[in-house]
Amino acid sequence: MTPGGTTTRTEYRTCHLCEATCGLELHLEGRDITLVRGDRDDVFSHGFLCPKGTALKQLEADPDRIRRPLVRRGDTFHEVSWDEAFEEIDAGLAPIRDQYGPDALAIYLGNPSAHNLAGLVYNRALLQAARTRNVYSASTVDQMPKQVSAGLMFGGGLTIPVPDVDRTDYLLMLGANPYASNGSLMTAPDLPGRLRALRARGGKLVVVDPRRTKTAEEADEHLPIRPATDALFLFALVHVLFADDLVDLGDVAAHVSGLEEVRRLAASFSPDAVAPACGIDAAVIRRVAHELVAAPTAAVYGRIGTCTQEFGTLASWLVDVVNVCTGNLDRPGGAMFTRAATSVGSNNAAGRGRGVTFGRRTSRVRGLPEFFGELPVVCLAEEIEAPGDGRVRALVTIAGNPAVSTPNSDQLRRALASLDFMVSLDIYVNETTRHANVILPPEPELARGHYDLALYNLAIRNVANYSPPLLELEPGEVPEWRSMLRLAGVIGGQGAHADVDVLDDLVLSGLVAKAVARPGSNVEGRDPDELLKALATRRGPERILDLMLRTGPYGDGFGADPDGLSLAVLEASPHGIDLGPLQPRIPEVLRTPTGMIELAPEACVADVERLRSVLDRPSARDGGPLVLVGRRDLRSNNSWMHNLQVLVKGKVRCTVHVHPDDAARLGLHDGADTRVRSSSGEIVLPAEVTDAVMPGVVSIPHGWGHDAAGTRMTTAARHAGANSNVLARTDLFDPLSGNAVLSGIPVELAAV
Questions:
Q1: What is the distance of C-alpha 158 from the center of its chain?
Q2: Which of 71, 634, 657, 737 gets the highest tally of CB atoms within 10 A of its CB?
Q3: Are residues 637 and 651 in the same domain?
């Protein structure tokens, strides 16, 4: 108790601000956070915490955060009641739906949705109510190539092998900088510490990157590579494995199809043929291939730099081709599959499933195919602007800022301004939501429960950790899950006052019915009413999370295993539960129609000729253009962490990195304003002359450009920076996944 009578307490919670899922120890006085530090007893993070986690206090108290629903009248937002907000939404969306049909509405899901229990549980209900083909997300500016390659090879979009970092002897890392990003599509708290431990036990870390990142500086070896040539480098490794008779599939040999086709494809990508294009010496390529095989265990890992390029899917595919061909897939110390506590449990010993199918619908203007139910975001602006039947006239955004984070951002900003109606669920009036007619805020972070449904599917160790709400809702605050279901009711034609509890019951009933009908489920054949009754004490996302845990691979099966997992068990374990290291899972993890690892998917095979055509592409030193790559910062997460002074203070971070040779040739000076121009636009920002980038390569961080009028992000506006996505083109994307190309963009630089 404080002298003023306020109750003091210590609580524990998982950080939701990046993919690392670190445990927090929070000191509270009443509703106020007085101290944030790492939870030393957390079963996964063991006290590690990056600067973003310590900023939770500032995020919760940010005066620019939206606390009540906002409705725009002219150019001004006004606070209204929740009923008024939904009546406004119904009045705006219903006529559009009735006159133009469901495809006149588009939905965009932002990156924070992956860190949000309510979003992950109820986004599907929202999309089902909308029945629109125009679904977009941050996935197609980030990770879709990896999801597509994993789907083609293993049968599921989240069947992504992750490096068993804690047990590997050799890690080859491409296009990733976990010292800044904490890992991505690889959930691992304190990944820098884990990489140091790898080296301390005699292992080797090799980083392939156009920049000498912090991770590259800490590695045993840094191999600078020309942007967008990762697939060439990886193919050359595969070539050496076959040419030198080093291929050994290990324990997965009986489950691999297409090996000879890969051998045929790799024949023309010898190290000597590839070296001039990628900038890595042929002898080095041969040595790395031999080192991968000679190491007791090894893993190859590629991340955002390998995804956001014109050959993103081929690079993502070849990462796992190398893991398979060196015998390191699905073995301790190699690349392994997580068994998450909420994953679907079934008896699938044969490893067969439906696999993946893309292109079930296409975009109206360019006819680009969908991937995992969503269209490439490079289509969004044209679907709004192009006249004709099926034009997008209304938009719903969920925790997203596409006006900053997607290609040709200036075009999308103009498109957003032309919409007939727009609704946003967000905590800020930002570059995107300033165009909304209605903005609905979520409840405070500490007033909601948290569980990392998505990220624990990609964890380097099997863990489970639930964070209960720490604060009661205050008058006027509404849980985000209720807003999402109420919005689904409006979109589905039930009006502004749809019964949220009835909709929630429908979602749960559907999931229970699937669980009892699933072959091999631990509740197979059970009476659905029995399970519904057992769940009746809860409501909202926690009720559905409890179902998923209890019917998952470690679950109690509603009494079938008294020692099994449930939400009640996690509630009694504030530091989480360690479910053990990753274990071999092939063939049961596979969901391909053949039950095999498809090493040579037809789509990848067909795209190899396109890759072969760039072998002779000139570099900047040979008369080619400068090319742009992004970069990450430990204190930033895309565009949504820039309104916190504690994270943006200090040295200006939104600069263009230029190699000294290029700076001298172009007359650029350190700190001087520099114009960067591409075929789609131009920006001006300070130059930072550094040999941390290769000659011919320039680097700008992603997510800045907070200078738009009409926003309410005071701190971000003072540190506006420049938006690198103005330079990205909507006609430049990876055709196998629809992912935008943000790395390897040709640019010109000039002094201002």
A1: 11
A2: 737
A3: yes
